[in-house]
Amino acid sequence: MEAELLEQALGERKALIRMCLYALDRARSAGVVERLEAGLAEVGVRAVRPDGERFDPAVHEAGGTEPTDDPARVGLIAETEVPGFVDRGQSLRAPIVIVYAARDSS
Asked: Which residues constitute the domain of residue 61?
C-alpha cells in the first residue's frame, strides 16, 4: 500500500512539473515566470540558462546563430532563447540557445 502511494505521489509530481513548464512557456509576466521558477526550484527543478558556455549539441538545442568577429567567441552560447530544466540532475528539457558563429566575410 505504501509503495502504491509513493508511486502515485511521484506520478502526480511529474504531472505538476509538466503543467508548470507549460504555464512558464505561456507566461507573459516576468513576475509570474520568476515565481513559477522559484516554486519549481523548491522541489528540485532548476532552470538552465547556459549563456557564455561552450555549445554542446548533446545538452543544448541551437535556435540560431549570432555573427561575431572574435574567434574566441565562436561556439559559445550568446544567449538563451528558451530555458531548459533539470530535475535533480536529470534533464527535462534542453535549453534553446543562440550560438556565436564566425561572421561570413564574403
From this structure: 47-106
